[in-house]
């Protein structure tokens, strides 16, 4: 038995939260205790650890999928909000990117368990891809989104 195997046993015991094995390995290393592992028992321990790690990774993938789904729902609701606001307004509608990002982040947090970091530039690019009539402008370091048909009247007013 080598020290490398001792370290592997410790990591397996920690992954599996095997209290019995952890208690044996906590006092001394496996070599000093003269512990013997049959190859079949060692393989069974490794397989058990692999199954636990696989289950954790699958759960992580499920959580990531749920967060992505929540982000998609929040984005579709944001697009719907933009269309409804533009439809119900009688004048020019200008959307601040910061306000839209805050709305998106709040809704995303309501829909998912974890919190997702919102990158405003990516949000802007997603909105521009979803709404072809929307255009992005910058004024005094602030991102603005305006419908193409509203740009002309805004320039005339300026």
Summary tags:
158 residues; mainly alpha; Arc Repressor Mutant, subunit A; 3-stranded antiparallel beta sheet; 6 helices; rod-shaped
Distance between the ends: 81 Å
Task: Look at the structure and give the mean pLDDT.
Answer: 81
Low-confidence stretches: none
The dominant shape is rod-shaped
- Summarize the helix and strand pattern as letters: HHHEHHEEH
CATH class of the domain at 59-157: Mainly Alpha
Strand order of the largest sheet: 1-3-2
Structural write-up:
The protein is mostly helical. The chain has a domain at about 60-155: Arc Repressor Mutant, subunit A (Orthogonal Bundle). It is about 70% helix and about 10% strand. The chain has six helices and three strands. A three-stranded antiparallel β-sheet has the order 1-3-2. Strand 2 (about 135-140) and strand 3 (about 140-145) form a beta hairpin. Helix 3 crosses helix 4 (about 95-110). The chain is rod-shaped, with a radius of gyration of 28 Å. The model has no long low-confidence stretch (mean pLDDT about 80).
């Amino acid at each position: 038995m080598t020290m490398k195997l001792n370290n592997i046993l410790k990591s397996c015991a920690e992954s599996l939260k095997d209290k019995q094995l952890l208690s044996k390995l906590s006092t001394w290393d496996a070599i000093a205790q003269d512990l013997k592992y049959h190859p079949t028992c060692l393989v069974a321990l490794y397989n058990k650890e692999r199954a636990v790690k696989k289950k954790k990774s699958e759960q992580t993938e499920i959580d990531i999928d749920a967060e992505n789904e929540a982000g998609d729902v929040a984005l579709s609701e944001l697009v719907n909000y933009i269309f409804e606001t533009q439809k119900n307004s009688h004048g020019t509608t200008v959307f601040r990117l910061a306000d839209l990002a805050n709305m998106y982040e709040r809704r995303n947090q309501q829909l998912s368990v974890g919190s997702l970091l919102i990158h405003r530039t990516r949000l802007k690019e997603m909105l521009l891809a979803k709404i072809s009539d929307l255009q992005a402008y910058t004024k005094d370091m602030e991102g603005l989104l305006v419908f193409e048909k509203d740009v002309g009247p805004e320039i005339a007013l300026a």
